[in-house]
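Exercise 7b. C-alpha coordinates:
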Protein backbone atom coordinates (compact mmCIF):
# COMPACT_ATOMS: atom_id res chain seq x y z
CA UNK A 1 0.00 0.00 0.00
CA UNK A 2 1.61 3.30 -1.09
CA UNK A 3 2.18 5.83 1.66
CA UNK A 4 1.83 9.60 1.19
CA UNK A 5 5.09 11.56 1.12
CA UNK A 6 3.48 14.96 1.71
CA UNK A 7 0.10 16.30 2.76
CA UNK A 8 -1.28 19.82 2.63
CA UNK A 9 -3.56 21.95 0.49
CA UNK A 10 -3.65 23.26 -3.06
CA UNK A 11 -4.49 26.95 -2.86
CA UNK A 12 -5.57 29.29 -5.64
CA UNK A 13 -7.67 32.39 -5.14
CA UNK A 14 -9.85 31.76 -2.10
CA UNK A 15 -10.08 28.02 -2.78
CA UNK A 16 -8.15 25.49 -0.65
CA UNK A 17 -8.16 21.79 -1.57
CA UNK A 18 -6.74 19.28 0.97
CA UNK A 19 -4.48 16.81 -0.86
CA UNK A 20 -1.82 14.13 -0.38
CA UNK A 21 1.14 13.34 -2.62
CA UNK A 22 2.12 9.80 -3.56
CA UNK A 23 5.13 8.73 -5.60
CA UNK A 24 4.02 8.11 -9.20
CA UNK A 25 7.24 6.26 -10.06
CA UNK A 26 9.04 3.60 -8.02
CA UNK A 27 12.59 3.18 -9.27
CA UNK A 28 13.72 -0.42 -9.67
CA UNK A 29 17.37 -1.38 -9.44
CA UNK A 30 19.67 -4.11 -8.17
CA UNK A 31 21.80 -3.02 -5.21
CA UNK A 32 24.91 -4.86 -4.06
CA UNK A 33 26.73 -4.67 -0.74
CA UNK A 34 30.49 -4.79 -0.34
CA UNK A 35 31.58 -7.76 1.75
CA UNK A 36 34.76 -9.21 3.23
CA UNK A 37 35.07 -12.45 1.24
CA UNK A 38 36.79 -14.15 4.19
CA UNK A 39 34.01 -13.59 6.72
CA UNK A 40 31.11 -12.30 4.52
CA UNK A 41 30.91 -9.29 6.87
CA UNK A 42 29.63 -5.94 5.53
CA UNK A 43 32.21 -3.28 4.73
CA UNK A 44 31.66 0.01 6.55
CA UNK A 45 33.07 3.42 5.80
CA UNK A 46 34.69 5.81 8.25
CA UNK A 47 35.03 9.59 8.06
CA UNK A 48 38.78 10.16 7.94
CA UNK A 49 40.97 13.20 7.36
CA UNK A 50 42.60 13.44 3.95
CA UNK A 51 45.62 14.94 5.69
CA UNK A 52 46.64 12.13 8.04
CA UNK A 53 44.04 9.38 7.48
CA UNK A 54 42.84 9.60 11.09
CA UNK A 55 39.12 9.13 11.84
CA UNK A 56 37.35 12.46 12.56
CA UNK A 57 34.58 12.58 15.20
CA UNK A 58 31.29 14.19 14.15
CA UNK A 59 31.81 16.99 16.64
CA UNK A 60 34.75 18.29 14.59
CA UNK A 61 33.04 18.04 11.18
CA UNK A 62 31.82 21.37 9.75
CA UNK A 63 30.29 22.53 6.46
CA UNK A 64 32.59 24.22 3.96
CA UNK A 65 32.14 25.58 0.44
CA UNK A 66 35.19 25.44 -1.85
CA UNK A 67 35.71 28.82 -3.51
CA UNK A 68 39.05 27.85 -5.08
CA UNK A 69 41.43 24.92 -4.87
CA UNK A 70 41.76 23.97 -1.18
CA UNK A 71 40.20 27.29 -0.06
CA UNK A 72 36.92 26.94 1.82
CA UNK A 73 34.35 29.21 3.41
CA UNK A 74 32.99 27.69 6.62
CA UNK A 75 29.23 28.10 7.09
CA UNK A 76 27.57 27.37 10.42
CA UNK A 77 24.14 25.66 10.39
CA UNK A 78 22.74 28.55 12.45
CA UNK A 79 23.71 30.92 9.62
CA UNK A 80 21.65 28.86 7.18
CA UNK A 81 18.56 28.74 9.39
CA UNK A 82 17.02 32.05 8.19
CA UNK A 83 17.21 30.91 4.55
CA UNK A 84 15.52 27.52 5.02
CA UNK A 85 12.02 27.74 3.45
CA UNK A 86 9.20 27.76 5.95
CA UNK A 87 7.66 24.30 6.10
CA UNK A 88 4.25 25.41 4.87
CA UNK A 89 1.65 22.86 3.88
CA UNK A 90 0.36 24.71 0.85
CA UNK A 91 0.88 24.43 -2.90
CA UNK A 92 0.34 28.01 -4.04
CA UNK A 93 -0.86 27.98 -7.63
CA UNK A 94 0.40 31.10 -9.41
CA UNK A 95 -0.70 30.64 -13.01
CA UNK A 96 -2.09 28.25 -15.61
CA UNK A 97 -0.23 27.52 -18.85
CA UNK A 98 -0.57 25.31 -21.92
CA UNK A 99 1.08 21.90 -21.56
CA UNK A 100 3.07 22.27 -24.80
CA UNK A 101 4.75 25.40 -23.42
CA UNK A 102 6.69 23.31 -20.88
CA UNK A 103 9.84 21.77 -22.34
CA UNK A 104 10.09 18.13 -21.11
CA UNK A 105 13.69 18.83 -20.03
CA UNK A 106 12.26 20.70 -17.02
CA UNK A 107 10.35 17.70 -15.64
CA UNK A 108 11.81 15.97 -12.59
CA UNK A 109 9.96 13.72 -10.09
CA UNK A 110 6.30 12.79 -10.56
CA UNK A 111 3.65 12.43 -7.86
CA UNK A 112 0.00 11.45 -7.84
CA UNK A 113 -2.15 14.12 -6.18
CA UNK A 114 -5.03 12.56 -4.22
CA UNK A 115 -7.85 14.26 -2.31
CA UNK A 116 -7.32 14.24 1.44
CA UNK A 117 -10.94 14.71 2.54
CA UNK A 118 -13.93 16.02 0.60
CA UNK A 119 -13.11 15.08 -3.03
CA UNK A 120 -15.54 17.52 -4.70
CA UNK A 121 -13.19 20.58 -4.87
CA UNK A 122 -10.43 18.27 -6.15
CA UNK A 123 -12.68 16.89 -8.90
CA UNK A 124 -13.88 20.36 -9.80
CA UNK A 125 -10.34 21.72 -10.29
CA UNK A 126 -9.20 18.62 -12.19
CA UNK A 127 -12.12 18.76 -14.62
CA UNK A 128 -11.75 22.51 -15.10
CA UNK A 129 -8.06 22.19 -15.98
CA UNK A 130 -8.66 19.19 -18.23
CA UNK A 131 -11.50 20.95 -20.04
CA UNK A 132 -9.40 24.07 -20.58
CA UNK A 133 -6.28 22.08 -21.52
CA UNK A 134 -4.23 23.95 -18.92
CA UNK A 135 -1.48 23.02 -16.48
CA UNK A 136 -1.18 24.69 -13.07
CA UNK A 137 2.19 26.09 -11.99
CA UNK A 138 2.84 26.55 -8.28
CA UNK A 139 5.39 26.46 -5.46
CA UNK A 140 5.55 24.32 -2.33
CA UNK A 141 8.02 23.20 0.32
CA UNK A 142 8.86 19.57 1.02
CA UNK A 143 11.61 18.42 3.40
CA UNK A 144 12.97 21.96 3.83
CA UNK A 145 13.36 22.47 0.10
CA UNK A 146 11.28 24.70 -2.10
CA UNK A 147 10.03 23.30 -5.39
CA UNK A 148 8.33 24.67 -8.46
CA UNK A 149 5.75 22.20 -9.71
CA UNK A 150 3.42 21.62 -12.63
CA UNK A 151 0.04 20.00 -11.97
CA UNK A 152 -1.85 18.51 -14.89
CA UNK A 153 -5.14 16.64 -15.01
CA UNK A 154 -5.74 13.35 -16.82
CA UNK A 155 -9.07 11.50 -16.72
CA UNK A 156 -10.18 13.45 -13.68
CA UNK A 157 -7.00 12.78 -11.68
CA UNK A 158 -4.19 15.21 -10.97
CA UNK A 159 -0.48 14.52 -11.39
CA UNK A 160 2.24 16.79 -10.06
CA UNK A 161 5.73 16.99 -11.53
CA UNK A 162 8.46 18.95 -9.81
CA UNK A 163 10.35 21.19 -12.22
CA UNK A 164 14.00 22.05 -12.59
CA UNK A 165 14.85 25.73 -12.29
CA UNK A 166 15.87 27.61 -15.41
CA UNK A 167 19.46 28.07 -14.20
CA UNK A 168 19.74 24.31 -13.62
CA UNK A 169 19.06 23.43 -17.26
CA UNK A 170 22.27 23.32 -19.28
CA UNK A 171 22.39 25.53 -22.36
CA UNK A 172 22.89 23.14 -25.31
CA UNK A 173 25.25 25.64 -26.95
CA UNK A 174 27.65 25.00 -24.05
CA UNK A 175 28.27 21.54 -25.55
CA UNK A 176 30.94 21.70 -28.24
CA UNK A 177 29.36 19.00 -30.42
CA UNK A 178 26.03 20.89 -30.53
CA UNK A 179 27.47 24.22 -31.66
CA UNK A 180 26.79 24.92 -35.31
CA UNK A 181 24.49 21.90 -35.63
CA UNK A 182 22.08 23.99 -37.73
CA UNK A 183 24.79 24.55 -40.35
CA UNK A 184 25.14 20.84 -41.19
CA UNK A 185 23.85 20.16 -44.71
CA UNK A 186 21.89 17.06 -45.66
CA UNK A 187 20.44 16.21 -49.03
CA UNK A 188 16.74 15.83 -49.80
CA UNK A 189 17.36 12.17 -50.62
CA UNK A 190 18.91 11.56 -47.20
CA UNK A 191 15.98 13.31 -45.50
CA UNK A 192 13.49 11.25 -47.50
CA UNK A 193 15.27 8.02 -46.58
CA UNK A 194 15.40 9.03 -42.90
CA UNK A 195 11.67 9.87 -43.00
CA UNK A 196 11.03 6.47 -44.56
CA UNK A 197 12.88 4.83 -41.67
CA UNK A 198 10.87 6.84 -39.13
CA UNK A 199 7.66 5.84 -40.90
CA UNK A 200 8.69 2.17 -40.92
CA UNK A 201 9.25 2.23 -37.15
CA UNK A 202 6.20 4.32 -36.25
CA UNK A 203 3.87 2.63 -33.75
CA UNK A 204 1.62 3.39 -30.79
CA UNK A 205 3.55 3.84 -27.55
CA UNK A 206 3.12 0.78 -25.32
CA UNK A 207 5.32 1.16 -22.21
CA UNK A 208 4.75 -2.48 -21.23
CA UNK A 209 6.93 -3.57 -24.17
CA UNK A 210 10.01 -1.92 -22.70
CA UNK A 211 11.65 -3.52 -19.70
CA UNK A 212 14.91 -3.15 -17.82
CA UNK A 213 16.51 -6.24 -19.36
CA UNK A 214 19.77 -5.76 -17.48
CA UNK A 215 18.00 -5.78 -14.10
CA UNK A 216 15.92 -8.83 -15.04
CA UNK A 217 18.99 -10.75 -16.22
CA UNK A 218 20.95 -9.84 -13.06
CA UNK A 219 18.06 -11.01 -10.85
CA UNK A 220 17.89 -14.27 -12.82
CA UNK A 221 21.63 -14.70 -12.26
CA UNK A 222 21.21 -14.12 -8.53
CA UNK A 223 18.37 -16.65 -8.29
CA UNK A 224 20.37 -19.24 -10.25
CA UNK A 225 23.37 -18.83 -7.97
CA UNK A 226 21.17 -18.85 -4.85
CA UNK A 227 19.61 -22.16 -5.95
CA UNK A 228 23.03 -23.67 -6.58
CA UNK A 229 22.35 -24.21 -10.28
CA UNK A 230 24.96 -24.22 -13.02
CA UNK A 231 25.59 -20.81 -14.50
CA UNK A 232 25.47 -20.60 -18.30
CA UNK A 233 26.90 -17.32 -19.58
CA UNK A 234 24.99 -15.67 -22.45
CA UNK A 235 26.61 -15.32 -25.85
CA UNK A 236 28.45 -12.10 -26.59
CA UNK A 237 26.46 -9.46 -28.44
CA UNK A 238 26.99 -9.27 -32.18
CA UNK A 239 29.06 -6.23 -33.10
CA UNK A 240 27.13 -3.75 -35.17
CA UNK A 241 28.33 -3.52 -38.78
CA UNK A 242 30.41 -0.62 -40.00
CA UNK A 243 28.68 0.86 -43.03
CA UNK A 244 30.49 2.93 -45.61
CA UNK A 245 28.23 6.01 -45.62
CA UNK A 246 25.05 7.51 -44.24
CA UNK A 247 22.83 6.44 -47.13
CA UNK A 248 23.99 2.84 -46.82
CA UNK A 249 23.18 2.94 -43.12
CA UNK A 250 19.72 4.35 -43.79
CA UNK A 251 18.98 1.80 -46.52
CA UNK A 252 20.11 -1.04 -44.27
CA UNK A 253 18.00 0.26 -41.39
CA UNK A 254 14.89 0.61 -43.57
CA UNK A 255 15.39 -2.95 -44.87
CA UNK A 256 15.74 -4.25 -41.31
CA UNK A 257 12.63 -2.36 -40.22
CA UNK A 258 10.62 -3.92 -43.06
CA UNK A 259 11.74 -7.39 -42.03
CA UNK A 260 10.68 -6.75 -38.45
CA UNK A 261 7.46 -4.90 -39.23
CA UNK A 262 4.34 -6.35 -37.72
CA UNK A 263 6.01 -7.38 -34.48
CA UNK A 264 8.10 -5.74 -31.76
CA UNK A 265 11.59 -7.20 -32.30
CA UNK A 266 13.96 -7.88 -29.46
CA UNK A 267 17.29 -6.09 -29.50
CA UNK A 268 19.04 -9.20 -30.77
CA UNK A 269 16.50 -9.73 -33.57
CA UNK A 270 16.80 -6.12 -34.69
CA UNK A 271 20.61 -6.16 -34.62
CA UNK A 272 20.72 -9.41 -36.60
CA UNK A 273 18.39 -7.92 -39.18
CA UNK A 274 20.56 -4.82 -39.43
CA UNK A 275 23.67 -6.99 -39.79
CA UNK A 276 22.18 -8.97 -42.68
CA UNK A 277 20.81 -5.87 -44.41
CA UNK A 278 24.04 -3.91 -43.99
CA UNK A 279 26.14 -6.78 -45.29
CA UNK A 280 24.11 -6.74 -48.48
CA UNK A 281 23.85 -2.96 -48.83
CA UNK A 282 27.58 -2.10 -49.22
CA UNK A 283 28.05 -4.75 -51.92
CA UNK A 284 25.17 -3.33 -53.88
CA UNK A 285 26.24 0.31 -53.52
CA UNK A 286 29.90 -0.30 -54.42
CA UNK A 287 29.39 -2.60 -57.41
CA UNK A 288 29.92 -0.89 -60.77
CA UNK A 289 29.07 -3.99 -62.81
CA UNK A 290 25.90 -6.00 -62.28
CA UNK A 291 26.45 -9.05 -60.12
CA UNK A 292 24.74 -12.17 -61.53
CA UNK A 293 23.95 -13.20 -57.96
CA UNK A 294 22.18 -9.90 -57.29
CA UNK A 295 18.52 -9.45 -58.35
CA UNK A 296 17.81 -7.56 -61.57
CA UNK A 297 17.41 -3.87 -60.58
CA UNK A 298 14.79 -3.47 -63.30
CA UNK A 299 12.60 -6.05 -61.60
CA UNK A 300 10.50 -4.76 -58.71
CA UNK A 301 11.63 -5.81 -55.25
CA UNK A 302 8.89 -8.04 -53.82
CA UNK A 303 9.54 -6.53 -50.36
CA UNK A 304 8.97 -3.00 -51.68
CA UNK A 305 5.89 -3.73 -53.80
CA UNK A 306 2.62 -2.08 -53.02
CA UNK A 307 0.71 -4.57 -50.83
CA UNK A 308 -2.40 -4.00 -52.95
CA UNK A 309 -0.57 -5.28 -56.06
CA UNK A 310 0.79 -8.45 -54.47
CA UNK A 311 -0.80 -11.82 -55.00
CA UNK A 312 -2.79 -12.54 -51.80
CA UNK A 313 -1.75 -16.20 -52.03
CA UNK A 314 1.97 -15.39 -51.96
CA UNK A 315 2.76 -13.53 -48.68
CA UNK A 316 3.02 -16.64 -46.52
CA UNK A 317 5.43 -18.32 -48.98
CA UNK A 318 7.53 -15.14 -49.30
CA UNK A 319 7.78 -14.71 -45.54
CA UNK A 320 8.85 -18.31 -45.13
CA UNK A 321 11.40 -17.95 -47.93
CA UNK A 322 12.86 -14.80 -46.39
CA UNK A 323 13.10 -16.46 -42.96
CA UNK A 324 14.85 -19.46 -44.51
CA UNK A 325 17.23 -17.21 -46.45
CA UNK A 326 18.06 -15.01 -43.42
CA UNK A 327 18.62 -18.11 -41.26
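Sequence design result:
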Amino acid sequence: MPRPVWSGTISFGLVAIPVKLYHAVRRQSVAFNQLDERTMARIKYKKVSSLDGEEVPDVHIVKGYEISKERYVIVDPDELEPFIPAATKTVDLEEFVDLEEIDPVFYDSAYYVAPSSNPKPYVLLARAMEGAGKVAIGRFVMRNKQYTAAIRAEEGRMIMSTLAYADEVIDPTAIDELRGIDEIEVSKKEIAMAESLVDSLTAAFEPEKYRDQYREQVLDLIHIKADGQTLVLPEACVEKPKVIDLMTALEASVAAAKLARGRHPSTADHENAVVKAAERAPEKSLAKQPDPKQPDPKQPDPEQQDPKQQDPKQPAKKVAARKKKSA
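Instructor comment: The chain is about 30% helix and 25% strand. Residues 280-293, 302-327 have pLDDT under 50 and may be disordered.
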